[in-house]
Amino acid sequence: MARAITPRQKWTFTLVAWGIGLLIFFPILWTILTSFKTEAQAIADPPVFFAFDWTTENYTTVQERSNYFHHFMNSVIIALGSTLIGLAIAIPAAWSMAFQPARRTKDILMWMLSTKMLPPVGVLVPIYLIFRDVGLLDTRIGLVIVMTLINLPIIIWMLFTYFREIPVDILEAARMDGATLREEIIYILTPMAVPGIASTLLLNVILAWNEAFWTINLTADDAAPLTAFIASYSSPEGLFYAKLSAASTMAIAPILIIGWFSQKQLVRGLTFGAVK
Amino acid sequence: MGRIVLKKVTKSFGETNVIPPLDLEIEDGEFVVFVGPSGCGKSTLLRLIAGLEDVTSGNIEIDGTDATAAPPAKRRLAMVFQSYALYPHMTVRKNIAFPMKMAGMPEDEQKRRIDSAAKALNLTDYLDRRPGQLSGGQRQRVAIGRAIVREPAAFLFDEPLSNLDAALRVGMRLEISELHERLATTMIYVTHDQVEAMTMADKIVVLRAGHIEQVGSPLTLYREPRNLFVAGFIGSPKMNLIEGNAAAQHGAHAIGIRPEHIEVSDQSGEWQGTVMVSEHLGSDTFFHVQDTGLAETMTVRASGEVGFKHGDTIFMTPRADQLHRFGKDGLRLP
Amino acid sequence: MATQHSRAAARLMISPAVILLLAWMLIPLGLTIYFSVLRYNLLMPGDNPFVGLENYEFFFTDPAFTGAVWNTVMLVVGVLIITVVGGTMLALLLNQPMFGQGIVRILVIAPFFVMPTVSALVWKNMFMNPVNGLFAHLAKGLGFEAFDFLSTVPLLSIILIVSWQWLPFATLILLTAFQSLDSEQLEAAEMDGATGVARFWYIMLPHLARAITVVILIQTIFLLSIFAEILVTTSGGPGTASTNLTYLIYAQSLLQFDVGLGSAGGVFAIILANIVAIFLMRMIGKNLDL
């Protein structure tokens, strides 16, 4: 409503919202802070907030003890690899559904989406056995394949909604202006679709990075990405909060940054266009 | 250079037949307007000529060569879309240059044409902006600029003014007419607005449900509408159509009389009624008359000086030489 | 624009995606159904005889089954209530004018980007641990006994952790829905004498109904499959106190190596998810006009 609001109201909203926002964010903030403490300070009672001896020792320890970087790279390869392969398969499919819709297009789209709704545990056993028999268990390739397949419907669907927003008029104008199909795709469609493709890429990197069912169940150690690697911290008890925090901070930092960039596109991607 | 002939052209979408067999000849340099209510197939017809839709059967000839199967790019036609369809990621200059770039025209020739088009269309100061930063009227001009630099055989306009506000629309209407005078290139213009059709066209094609109802100059359509549909569609305010006794007196099933062809008086006349609403435009006054026993409401156009108020009794006399008579089949009687 | 040639090209371009997804769906699905009627345990080599519906019988009569169904329902419903109610209020708040709105928004969304294993471990150790967790420190500071969340109320603790992860999702979507509300509608209601509460109830909430339904359906699909959070915090325990269906099936097939039994559970999970999916698909389909 375009009406002047009193400064007092605005300050009240500001205070309440910031209070709640910080409360929700607190576990992440606390994790980041703890990652710079010594183990003793990490569990100190009363807790210390900022007045501690800042150290980066935990980060080096985590890397040295458990070859953290290896698992980090697994995450990068699996998330990025599955997204790029998925895009390569999805772009032509989404293009043809958006610009050459046929009678069945809607059915195909809905069916693709329905595969995403298959509960993973329902197909865990056969996938596990197949992977065991063909030697894909605990391999990066195996996980890239699974991630590609489980996120393919979302990639296609997101691209489809972006492509459909490109007015057909503009493509027809290009055709009238003498562009061939190839020129139409290079000069008109691609430049207009780049933002959509980019946000699809970002959202899928996020989803693949955080996927924690298949990554845990199909890896042991060698191909374990960060989700599975961090899960291994659940067994040993004792003084390890600072190291756990350091490992966690490194695992979530890249995605927090990507996520903040793509928050506007998030809604569309996660609701399959049902909410805009 | 721009003679377009349609021979027995039909178009169906699945089971639905949108254009029944249709024949039409458009002469070189003519300004032809396709007009009709929404859903009459006028835009489809334009897209068939453009090559954006395949014809189901029949032939389209452009300058004597059969272009039925030619892709849009090969037809040497330029189109201005209702949405303007500018390329949002390109500057105005690049938008205008695009068709020439596709044709592989030398850079200096491209530049010369862009500059002259920009000058003619008042776009010189905006060449480095993007479409998003332009007003509706400016976008319209860019779309036209993109069309003229190609020097096409014919221009196709698909309701180009419908996204503009009323004042701009009148201005652009004049600009397009001037453009036609200057270039003398064939133009095919689609609109649902009969005022645009009347003011711009050399030849109007009135369409209904894919059928051509009448083809002719604006004045022919105004003076001798071929049937009731054209009579009702062309002219503003609409022609009064009267059935029953009053029509039978003139030996017709229905008669039509335009509001401007009725004389009014407060004393006597052929017909009598009560004024419900009077609209004063200054130069003219429109009276909406009821209780005439002829039609539900009769519209009369009088000069601005004539004053009747709500509830006044009004007498009306149609000018006998301007009376249109229609038969039971809706067709004009001689 | 659709010509014969371009239609053939379109079909060609769509086929890799269709073939892959078809294989991904049919092969595992067929195998799951097939395994579910065999006596098939990886620890007992030999042939795997056909046993009909025996596995289903075992699965449904397993003492853990009823508990798992109940836990699954509690988990889904609990998280839904917290996230939808909390998300609506939070979205309403974030839609008000304030300083630093963008930053608050980022703070609120952040938990969604935290991977499940990290959030589960952080909550389990640094907050809910009865000795060293922040909650324990807080309780002691206020003079109370420290509370052992994960052993005393394991399911509730998991519900809280999962709610923290999904609250941002609900908030974000509902905020988007709020922002698409036509402000003239609210102004018209104000002219008609509607109070703030009445405007929320009669104008905003009906406008949100669709978004709320979408949130519920999508979250349900994901919440039915909650796994990592349970594995990391309680491993389904103590006993089976926090075992949901997903975890139960995982335990039967990958911990006890009973492929047949796990597959029977898998078939049940698929049917359950499909019931929700049908409603969700219908909503999405309505919005998709081709």
Gist?
Chain A has helices at residues 7-34, 39-42, 57-66, 68-99, 105-116, 124-134, 140-164, 168-176, 181-210, 214-217, 226-231, 241-261, 263-271. Chain A has 276 residues and is mainly alpha-helical.
Spell out the key features of this protein.
heterotrimer, A: about 280 residues, mainly alpha, MetI-like fold, 13 helices, C: about 290 residues, globular, transport (chain A)
Structure description:
Chain A: This is Carbohydrate ABC transporter permease. Chain A: Belongs to the binding-protein-dependent transport system permease family. Chain A: It is a multi-pass membrane protein. Chain A: It is found in: Cell membrane. The complex is a heterotrimer of chains A (276), B (334) and C (290). Chain A is mainly α. Helices cover 73% and strands 0% of the residues of chain A. In chain A, helix 4 runs antiparallel to helix 9, helix 7 crosses helix 9 and helix 8 runs antiparallel to helix 9 (181-210). Chain B has 2 domains: 4-231, P-loop containing nucleotide triphosphate hydrolases (Rossmann fold, 3-Layer(aba) Sandwich); 237-326, OB fold (Dihydrolipoamide Acetyltransferase, E2P), CATH 2.40.50.140. Chain B has a 6-stranded mixed beta sheet, sandwiched between helices. Chain B has a 5-stranded antiparallel beta sheet with strand order 13-17-14-15-16, with no helix packed on it. Chain B has a 4-stranded antiparallel beta sheet with strand order 2-1-4-5, covered by helices on one side. Chain B is globular, with a radius of gyration of 23 Å. The mean pLDDT of chain B is 90. Chain C is mainly alpha-helical and 290 residues long. Chain C is built from 13 helices and no strands. In chain C, helix 2 (54-61) crosses helix 13 (259-287). Chain C is globular and about 75 Å long. The chains are: A mainly alpha (276), B alpha+beta (334), C mainly alpha (290). Chains in contact: A-B, A-C. The interface between A and C is large, with 102 and 113 residues.
